[in-house]
């Protein structure tokens, strides 16, 4: 593929190939030869060699030095600076966050809106029928299993952490600037704002990167690496420093996103332990100890390599989270929860365009800036920073799906699950505050779920189960995130070295502890927002790259189908002619023995005797023996 685009370096289909089947030798801009693609039965050495043939620069330690070392040095440097100079680091992060919110908040809001519109347009366009794989590939997973895995990607520490606190907080101590209602009357707007933060918009960002990676992986046969999603724009230059920068930024985003989730998870685990009486007071040092302990457990899961065990543990944890939600639905105000869901959905649908582009332009105050920094913009930064991890995950499980199926599944299923989750937990909090005991106005996010358990039967048991849910999400996020980061740092190798995977797991825990030491939740929010800024530009470029790739793909396959139809028509006509005439020799005789009746062939009487009739323009045609000239 040329650096200037798709058009050069194409390989023509082999002569005599079956044009009705999936073409094995499509232009390289659409599909790489099988010899360059990684097969399921390839050994690690064979995979490494194939990656090198595709342009990956992998060293003997199965790492890509130009990606691994810069990413590790910067992440380690940020963590150490935050630990050694916590106050200075916290101040720098807070000032950086304030500057981004004040000057670039509009960019984040616009970018997320573009992702939503882009994903929907692509799904509804003629590109929607393009398959993420060969045209004859079947989906790797059944529909329900695929939906369950999408649900697992969307269900994590964040939903558990903010399930009660976010809708409730918007009606108590953190209303959105500009609302003209408050208290119970703001409940519908609060739920709609929560749906915005956890629904279509974050998953549209995941859909963009997931679709770009899935197309590069399954359609083109490229390695699992962010750089290849931008190959339609940069061409062969993604093999050089441009690709290295892209992958390094993806690692930054993933590590900071995971660290943010780990920090939130540690706070919630500590709050649960306090509720059930295991600890009297939660300090920063205790949170750091929690992060160390659970990171150690996550590292053990990495070393053990029990992928199947982690899979079952993750599935079991999702089941446990579902049971907690059912308990909250049945033991809570069930009718109100259903009413809350229906009415909040209506408000969300009527306000979604305004909410999408609401940048607070007419509420210019420090209070408004602080609200956007701690809420909408924090979420957008968190989702964009988390996008490489989720994008790679959903790309890997989506082989055989069409573009339309992919976008519909990624956008709709997790969005619906998130809305139901927040309707249940947020509904419990809103009902208790405004129509019940009214004692939740001053709760913190980390303790909110456990306070809801107070009015349920088996409070202690539910609290313990809640702690387990958060802890397992903590462990699986660290383990899976470490694998994704290590793959990016190893040139896209699906089996990166264990030592580097352990190293990244430890760095994620170290960074989470460092951010807590330097400012707690504020630093976690600032870290996500800062690292998301450059990667949001990459996501926008992915939209452009996808348009170029899908347009070329459709054009190439349309041309292939045109040639296939032409060949079928030619074969049909040839067969009809052959069936009508006894032999092609007879046809040739009828054509070659025709008489030339042009006027120029009519001569005068002089010299007629020596003239021989010939067929003009057919020099190679055999001529019959001529008779001797007649004598006068």
Automatic annotation (TrEMBL):
Residue ranges of the TM segments: 62-85, 105-125, 146-165, 195-217, 245-266, 286-308, 320-342, 377-394, 406-425, 458-477, 498-517, 529-547
Tell me which positions the record assigns to the signal sequence. none
Alphabetical UniProt keywords: Cell membrane, Membrane, Transmembrane, Transmembrane helix, Transport
Query: Where is the protein localized?
Result: Cell membrane
GO CC term, one of those recorded: plasma membrane
Give one Pfam family, short name only.
BCCT
Extract the InterPro entries matched here: BCCT_transptr (IPR000060)
MF terms from GO for this chain are: transmembrane transporter activity
Annotated region described as Disordered, given as residue ranges: 1-20, 602-632
The protein's topology relative to the membrane is: Multi-pass membrane protein
The similarity comment for this entry is: Belongs to the BCCT transporter (TC 2.A.15) family.
What is this protein identified as?
A: BCCT family transporter
> What is the native source organism of this protein?
Brachybacterium paraconglomeratum
Source organism lineage? Bacteria, Bacillati, Actinomycetota, Actinomycetes, Micrococcales
């Amino acid at each position: 593929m040329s650096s200037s685009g798709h058009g050069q370096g194409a390989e023509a289909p082999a002569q005599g190939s079956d044009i009705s089947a999936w073409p094995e030798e499509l232009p390289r801009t659409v599909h790489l030869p099988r010899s360059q693609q990684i097969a399921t039965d390839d050994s690690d050495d064979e995979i490494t060699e194939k990656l090198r043939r595709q342009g990956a620069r992998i060293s003997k330690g199965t790492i890509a030095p130009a990606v691994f070392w810069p990413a590790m040095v910067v992440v380690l440097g940020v963590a150490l600076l935050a630990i050694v100079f916590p106050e200075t680091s916290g101040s720098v992060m807070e000032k950086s966050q304030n500057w981004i919110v004040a000057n670039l908040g509009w960019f984040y809001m616009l970018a997320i809106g573009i992702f939503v519109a882009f994903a929907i347009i692509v799904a509804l366009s003629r590109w929607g029928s393009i398959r993420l794989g060969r045209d004859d590939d079947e989906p790797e997973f059944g529909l329900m299993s695929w939906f369950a895995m999408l649900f697992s990607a969307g269900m994590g520490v964040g939903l558990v952490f903010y399930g009660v606190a976010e809708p409730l907080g918007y009606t108590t101590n953190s209303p959105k600037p500009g609302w003209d209602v408050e208290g119970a009357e703001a409940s519908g707007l609060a739920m709609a704002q929560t749906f915005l933060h956890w629904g279509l918009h974050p998953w549209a960002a995941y859909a963009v990167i997931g679709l770009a990676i899935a197309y590069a992986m399954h359609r083109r046969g490229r390695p699992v690496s962010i750089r290849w999603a931008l190959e339609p724009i940069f061409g062969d230059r993604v093999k050089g420093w441009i690709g290295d920068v892209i992958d390094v930024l993806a690692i930054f985003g993933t590590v900071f996103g995971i660290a943010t989730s780990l920090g939130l998870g540690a706070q919630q685990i500590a709050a649960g332990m306090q509720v059930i009486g295991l600890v009297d007071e939660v300090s920063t040092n205790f949170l750091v100890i929690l992060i160390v302990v659970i990171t150690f457990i996550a590292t053990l899961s990495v070393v053990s390599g029990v992928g199947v065990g982690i899979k079952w543990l993750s599935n079991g944890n999702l089941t446990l989270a579902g049971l907690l939600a059912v308990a909250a639905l049945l033991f809570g105000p069930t009718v109100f929860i259903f009413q809350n869901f229906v009415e909040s959905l209506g408000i969300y649908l009527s306000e979604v365009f305004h909410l999408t582009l609401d940048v607070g332009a007419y509420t210019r105050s420090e209070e408004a800036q602080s609200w956007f920094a701690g809420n909408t913009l924090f979420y957008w930064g968190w989702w964009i920073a988390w996008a490489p991890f989720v994008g790679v995950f959903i790309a890997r499980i989506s082989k055989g799906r069409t573009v339309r199926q992919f976008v519909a599944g990624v956008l709709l299923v997790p969005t619906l699950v998130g809305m139901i989750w927040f309707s249940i937990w947020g509904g419990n909090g809103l009902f208790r505050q405004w129509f019940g005991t009214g004692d939740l106005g001053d709760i913190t996010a980390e303790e909110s779920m456990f306070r809801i358990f107070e009015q349920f039967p088996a409070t202690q048991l539910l609290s313990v189960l809640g702690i387990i849910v958060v802890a397992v999400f903590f462990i699986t996020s660290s383990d899976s995130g470490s694998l994704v980061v290590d793959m990016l740092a190893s040139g896209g190798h699906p089996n990166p070295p264990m030592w580097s995977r352990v190293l990244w797991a430890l760095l994620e825990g170290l960074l989470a502890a460092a951010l807590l030491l330097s400012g707690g939740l504020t630093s976690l929010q600032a870290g996500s927002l800062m690292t998301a800024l450059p990667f949001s530009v990459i996501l926008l470029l992915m939209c452009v790259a996808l348009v170029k790739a899908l347009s070329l793909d459709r054009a190439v396959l349309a041309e292939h189908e045109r040639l296939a139809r032409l060949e079928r028509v030619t074969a049909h006509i040839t067969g009809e002619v052959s069936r009508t005439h006894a032999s092609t020799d007879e046809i040739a005789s009828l054509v070659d023995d025709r008489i030339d009746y042009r006027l120029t062939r009519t001569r005068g009487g002089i010299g007629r005797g020596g003239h021989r009739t010939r067929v003009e323009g057919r020099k190679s045609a055999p001529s019959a023996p001529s008779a001797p000239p007649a004598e006068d």
